């Protein structure tokens, strides 16, 4: 772990059920390779994860079993380790590559910008040569300008110990926000292509593995499941997914399951399959008709890692893991990530408290940061309605030092502001109302595709608020090894029940927020007739649609202009923190 990481807190743990084939899975890590330096439950780092995967592989192989390590994308954007370097990601990719990852794929964040997808093409794909899959992503080759697959479409391989014959695919959900140097083909048309049809007709396959940056409960994964099942009625399928930042497990049928392993290096997903028919096992009388699938969501800390490997402080770390922890510490020093810009007086939560409220991160952004600091000197005293999508803020703020790292953890994106002059106030309000009308924003959600949102992605999995009654939870699973108070954390309920989390936690509330927050900046007590409608540039395409619906007949892209040139939301927040949160 990193030198400043808090020690994990002991907690009652559920164990892992190993099988013939075992998996470790990360997704949506968003640069958090140093782990969480303010939260004991997630305080291990990528170096510890490397040691963990090594020890788990040793354990599996000693039992004659196999272990595969999988990552399903969104490795970038969301943490100082990625976002604060110039160019972005140079430290991150060098740290990432030390983990032996058997299969990986791209997320949407790898494709928002041209330089990010080109870095995948030139660095991450070669770093994991042969293991990076891109079933539905093409990129314009930066030199030849030809449209080429970002990485191979699929792969067939045989596992080391059990000889399990696997065909693996790597998908991205039907993402449309990519830069125009990449092409994301819809999943429903990709699975009709000849190469896919041939791959699923291969009879020499014991397991189909579908990894992807796709929610496990999604139209895209349903379509892939149906397509494979239509041809191979009996072959086991394991899906690994992500994107919604949640822990989730889907049962498609008795031989097909899918695991999603959370976000931000809070979770390492574990899955296993036992009873697969393989060329070896079919000769044995022990071959089983129906395989058994298991899953567990591991809290990413050393207490869990020691427990699951049966090792301790001395026997657990590997030399490589320790070197990588040192590499991360050096990168954090080079990037000045511990530099303190101010001190937060109390917690500000994204979803643990109601919005609006004094402890809501969004209320703070509206009533303090934007209200104090959003001003273009060319537009002084002009009434302004400011709109920012809630998904632009990515993490809670904890009391204490607000560092260079906290800045990017909170607001990693480079988005700035644009504005439309003299918008009738009632129309401006209507535009915000339209933006907030639905969970899925405007953009006629494509049929058969995952919904998109301007709110934090976790919210797609919560149709309603979850309000936790603060009474201690009853624990009816494995016996408690420790009767102390439970630590608040994940209490996942999925298609296999309520016993998925390795650590038994006290539950946490989840309150929904609107797609966009808004603040009226007006020096007068009178309602303005017109306002400057200021919006964060990421939502411009949605503002265009909302303006049409609101009956504002203008060409938004043409008539809008940059507001506070050179100022990003990230820097606006940082300047406010420096001025207002003295330590
Ligand atoms: N420049 C950006 C990029 C993304 N967002 C928000 O993040 C959501 C997607 O996040 P995932 O990690 O789930 O891919 C997106 O819907 C936006 O809410 C943003 O605000 N600015």
TrEMBL record:
Residues 348-544 form the Putative 5'-nucleotidase C-terminal domain. GO terms for molecular function: hydrolase activity. GO terms for biological process: nucleotide catabolic process. Residues 22-246 form the Calcineurin-like phosphoesterase domain. Keywords: Signal. Pfam families: Metallophos, NadN_nucleosid_C. PANTHER family: 5'-NUCLEOTIDASE-RELATED, SER_THR PROTEIN PHOSPHATASE FAMILY (AFU_ORTHOLOGUE AFUA_3G04160). This is Calcineurin-like phosphoesterase domain-containing protein. It comes from Penicillium olsonii.
